Amino acid sequence: MNVGRKYIPVILSVILSFLGGALCYHFGLRFLPDSDQANAWFEAQDMAQGNFFLKGWVNSPDNFWLIDLLGMAGLLRLMPASMTVLHILPAVWWGGIIGAACYLALGGRRNRSWRCLLPVMGFIALVPLYEQEAIAFITYAPYHVGTMFVALVGIIAAGRVLDGTGGKLAQASLFMFVSIIFISDPFAVCCFVMPTCLVSLWRIWTDDHPERGVRCFVPVIMAFVAATVIKTVIHVEGGFHSLHVVAHFMALPELPSHLLLALMSVLDLFGINFWGKTVIGHANHNSLTDIVRLVPFVFIALYVWRYARQRVNDVRRNQCFAGEDSVSDILVVGLVMDVLAASILDFHIPGEDIIRYFLPVLLFATIAYARSDRAGDASGIFMGAIVWSLLACVLTWHPRTEQDVDIDPYHVGHQLDVRPLMAVLHQQDLTYGYTDYWHASLTTLASGGELKLRSIMVNEDVSAADKAACHLASRPWLSKRDWYLPADLQGTDRVFFLVYSPVFPKNDEYLKQAAVISNMGTPDRIVPVDDEFSLLIYDRQRVMSCHGLFEWEKKK
């Protein structure tokens, strides 16, 4: 009987991982992709076809090379040209996150009771079921979800090194996971790598076994060196080029609104944002589940607050900051650093899309609480919250058809329905054109490559001598150089520009009709798409005369 109970947590962990991943895949089908995902798919396809270093590509600072891109490339080898990988990979990552969270929850103070998994079940495993806006976030790749899986398994390895239960294998694993982070996504440096270094240094300074801190700190430094070497090799070999985006502190006038969005993001991630929702209604807009889940959330918040305050008091009394539970130390330090960075820094992310930067708060706070003895004491409350919130979901369930999709869940104009645009282009027999970033690669992917739309911008940085020249320019952001070569226009006599109509002014990120006409002249034809967009159609030779569209090298 005792042997059977011993395996209950393991079996439950496997079930939760599979269930959470399956829910993530199922509900992810309701959200349209965006151009970030489309470009990642094109990169992964290029990797699957042998371009492992992604020669000719320009990426963002978080290139996701060894995480999402490599993962999608592996799936594309199994399912060539399948767009389903955009839904499968996030499901795999989320299932892996649940498995790692369960493992960490079971490791706290040798607590092997299945009840310590209830916080993980209520706030991580069943997140997709509640249809909050956070679902869109966890069903997109690349979107830091895979990065957090790497961070969690890295924390497992760091914990084993710091506690002295892991040998060379744990150190090698820590080295590998930190290297992946340094190479592919600096997002986890703040919430995983830096907290691990801080806890290791405190161990060296104050612990009875300082060598354990050294064994943890050294692989991190070695990983940084190795990552630097690898990125240098990629650059020398002509591989992908990562652009740099410098973060700034928020301007004081903008800080209050940013902090409010930050708070909303955290509430959405925990599924407790009931503000503005009806008490009983559609599962997407009812407040019953949010209010019920608010009760266990309070327990988690109080635990993290007391844990941090206790550690601060230990430091003041010149005691060891890192207690016996080094993993919880890393988790709490990581979530505090993440909250501070995401709340006061400007990462050029519009609106509630900043929710991505608060994912460590959801994961780390829940796991840290699950590792504590207090989680077992409050198991009845968590069980009740899970049961009642599931019941509320069932009672307010609203079935959807396959055609029902959620467009632009964060209201920032990134997730778009390009099907009407594709219909007009097919009707006009147009296959090649230029437009803004958010319409370009998404339309190309959705059409299966039949339609080619390239992202361009208006180059405002011109000298007086170049005022008469064409200032339309290629946009080297998550794109490939081959897309902007003159040879890419072969096979078409007409080239279109998808532009916003004058009555719909947008910011500089979008392509305006007046800007194209001022640079290219009067188009041969203007075809309205809808009240917001128009197609400006030009002869291919006129487009070829705009050299900025083909001068990638000068802008690199």
Rg (CA only): 25 Å
Quote the beta fraction.
5-15%
Number of strand segments: 11
For this structure, the quaternary state is: single chain
Query: How widely separated are the two ends?
Result: 66 Å
Poorly predicted ranges (pLDDT <50, ≥5 residues)?
A: none
Helix content: 55-70%
**Main β sheet profile:** 6 strands, mixed
Mean pLDDT: 86
Provide a count of the helices. 22
The general outline is: globular
Short synopsis of the structure:
The chain crosses the membrane at residues 7-28, 85-106, 113-130, 142-162, 174-205, 217-234, 255-276, 291-308, 329-348, 354-371, 378-397. This protein is α/β, with parallel strands linked by helices and 556 residues long.
What does it look like?
The protein has 2 domains: 7-396, no CATH class; 418-549, no CATH class. It has helices spanning 2-6, 8-28, 35-48, 65-78, 85-107, 118-125, 134-138, 145-163, 168-184, 187-206, 210-236, 255-269, 288-316, 326-344, 359-370, 373-377, 379-395, 419-427, 437-446, 513-520, 540-544, 552-555, and strands at residues 57-59, 241-242, 248-249, 345-346, 432-435, 452-458, 472-474, 479-480, 494-500, 525-528, 533-539. The model has no long low-confidence stretch (mean pLDDT 86). It is built from 22 helices and 11 strands. Helix 6 (118-125) packs antiparallel against helix 15 (359-370), helix 10 (187-206) crosses helix 14 and helix 14 (326-344) runs antiparallel to helix 15. It starts with a helix and ends with a helix. A hairpin with a 4-residue loop joins strand 10 and strand 11 (533-539). It has 556 residues and is α/β, with parallel strands linked by helices. 55% of the residues lie in helices and 8% in strands.
